[in-house]
Amino acid sequence: MHLVRHFGRIVLCAAITGPVGLWSSTTASTGTNITTQDTSNNDYASGNGASAGPYPGYSDSSCSAIGIGATAEGEYNTAVGAQAKAVGTGGWPGYETALGYNADAAQYDSTALGALSYANINAVSVGESATAAVAGVAVGYDASAASNSTALGWGANASGMQSVAIGQSSQAGADAIAVGAGATANYQEALAVGVASKAEGDYSAVYGYEATAVDFGTSVGSSSSAADGASALGACRSRVA
To answer: How far apart are CA 209 and CA 159, in angstroms?
Structure first.
């Protein structure tokens, strides 16, 4: 450190020598506020307790972990955020991306974006606490998608395999579809389209605000209702402005 006179002003200067980060030949891992890079495996880790490296039994990795306690282990995995994890298990160790506090991209080709989000094999979850099972897609706060299912919206829940739930707090069971805020289709191959619509039996279908139907029933129109195996067409009540 030394003083330099520059145009009549006194300037305090400091020179820093030596490497800014640490370079190792094994798995990149850090201590407190240390950045490390493994040149042999192209791994990079930055943050207190962050680590990046190959999955056991693999030589190449090219992983990056950034954030306190972030972990990226496998092949081409990326974890960004405190406690974020992109760690393949069960022989599926690669192409995982986790972004956000405690986000977990747990299996091959998974993407978890958002605090506390979770994604399994070939799955995508976006939003705080969003959860997607194998090949599922969950987008929205606390959205949840089962295997091969899609949930879009705040609290949307596609709980059955191959189901679709779109809209705030919508719910869909196995092979069912629910579209609209509060729409519910929790039965086998049921279909509910409309705000607060309810398909309350297997193979039932409803279209319209608060429309309902039970097993094999079909109702179309606002507040329409169909009994077992029956059909109902037209709104049951009108609205006065």
So the answer is: 22
pLDDT at 226 over 80: yes
CB 221 within 8 A of CB 232: yes
Beta-sheet pairing, 22-24 with 97-99: unpaired
Q: Which fold has domain 140-241?
A: Alkaline Protease, subunit P, domain 1 (2.150.10)
Q: What is the mean pLDDT of residues 206-224?
A: 95
Distance of CA 194 to the CA centre of its chain: 26
Q: Are 38 and 58 contacting, i.e. CB atoms less than 8 angstroms apart?
A: no
pTM above 0.85, yes or no: no
Q: How many CB atoms lie within 10 A of CB 60?
A: 14
Provide the residue ranges of all domains of the chain, joining segments of one domain with +: 23-101, 140-241
pLDDT tens sequence across 120-169: 999 999 999 999 999 999 999 999 999 999 999 999 999 999 999 999 99
